[in-house]
Sequence to fold (211 residues):
Amino acid sequence: MGMRKIILSNSAAFSKAFSSSSSALSSKLSHSNPKSNVPNPHSLNQFLTKQRKSGAITLDQALHFFGYMIHMLPPPPVSSFNHLLGALAKIQHHGHVISFYQRLNSVGVFPDIRTLNILLNCCCKMGLASDGFSVFGKILRGRYSPTSSTFNTLIKGLCMDDKIGEATRLFNNMSVFGCQPDVFAYGSIIDGLCKYGKVEKGKTTFFPNKR
Fold:
């Protein structure tokens, strides 16, 4: 079975693995007051962009803003939610990013490639690279084009999860998805191979014509 088919066949596992997180988030949001101290809709996206760049947002503030945003009619564009998810990821609340993502689906806000890249990054930072593969499957099913950031994040996550074989196979198949390895992808693979004493395999992989 090809790399693309393997990834697509595992994509359904992600939603099952985190289904309980959405209900936990709903409980937290029910205790927030989404109508106070929130920027008006016209300045919301600009405000969230600033919060993402500064990393100054707190978890309580994020819950507050998210509760407000999902009750707006119509809801803000997915780009606004991406700024909020990115801000949360920046302050290491990776589990809450996953919970927010699940809640977005339930209120009819659909992810784009940036949303899924943020989600993928959070899975890998939590040591859940296998679930990262499921997110990658969502990217392909959504007919998005994986970016260099997509591959770099997943390759690094697999190496951190001691799955250097899977990381190497993904690295070698990047061209199948229309993407070429960059210096970050090479760095992650080389670090992973060296970490597990597979320097010779690295030489064979990257320099096949040299004896």
Notes: The CA atoms of residues 96 and 129 lie 17 Å apart.
